[in-house]
Amino acid sequence: NAGVTQTPKFQVLKTGQSMTLQCAQDMNHNSMYWYRQDPGMGLRLIYYSASEGTTDKGEVPNGYNVSRLNKREFSLRLESAAPSQTSVYFCASSHLGGAGGYTFGSGTRLTVV
Amino acid sequence: QKEVEQDPGPLSVPEGAIVSLNCTYSNSAFQYFMWYRQYSRKGPELLMYTYSSGNKEDGRFTAQVDKSSKYISLFIRDSQPSDSATYLCAMIDGQAGTALIFGKGTTLSVSS
């Protein structure tokens, strides 16, 4: 029972580099989410996908793009990384939208130097 | 005004104490209320879930929702060192296509 799997767990990027954070869930959930967590700021929603084929912006979408590849996978791409994107990134999924609660992955710790 | 306000703490208590964690919110449309526990360097995990107003109890944990005051609480009885974590409140209106709104989290430390 893997739940939500995020890769990689750690990453260091140089300013201007690009990368894709991967997320996959094996619970047949419809909705998937990307959050970032920063000290003193809590969890802030970047993008979410209410169902396969749809994506919507959250609170802090600038500098990010997402792809809902299929029902299982939801990736987050940083096209040109900036130091302000240093953060811990969490992917989550849910069956009944947010009302059913989320299952979170273990996070990706990203440092941009 | 933020949609969800939560005192970040830190909160330090001795083992066996009763802990009270709270959140206030501004959106009267919120109907589903949750508490997540997050251990250091881990992802949040769902701890308690409540629909609309009222109380819900699960072992040493009790969640309360007062929609008239826009105030939710989590009580931990007989706190243990293993309860040391960050507790995040979260809520949603339940409409299709929306996402959970989280508080910033309260860091709790229980000393033995």
Please tell me about this protein's structure.
The complex is a heterodimer of chains A (113) and B (112). With 113 residues, chain A is mainly β. Chain A has no helices and 11 strands. In chain A, the strands form 2 sheets. In chain A, strands 2, 4, 5, 6, 9, 10 and 11 form a 7-stranded mixed beta sheet that branches. In chain A, strands 1-3-8-7 form a 4-stranded antiparallel beta sheet, with no helix packed on it. Chain B is an all-beta fold. Chain B contains no helices and 11 strands. Chain B has strands at residues 4-6, 11-14, 19-25, 32-38, 45-51, 54-58, 61-66, 71-76, 85-92, 101-102, 106-111. In chain B, β7 and β8 form a beta hairpin. The mean pLDDT of chain B is 93. At the A-B interface, β5 and β10 of A face β5 and β9 of B.
Biggest β-sheet strands, sense, barrel of chain B? 6 strands, mixed
Could you tell me the strand content of chain A as a percent range?
over 45%
Helix and strand pattern of chain A: EEEEEEEEEEE
Low-confidence stretches of chain B: none
Number of helices of chain A: 0
Uncertain runs of chain A: none
Specify the structural class of chain A. Answer: mainly beta
- Gyration radius from CA atoms of chain A, angstroms: 13 Å
- Number of helical runs of chain B? 0
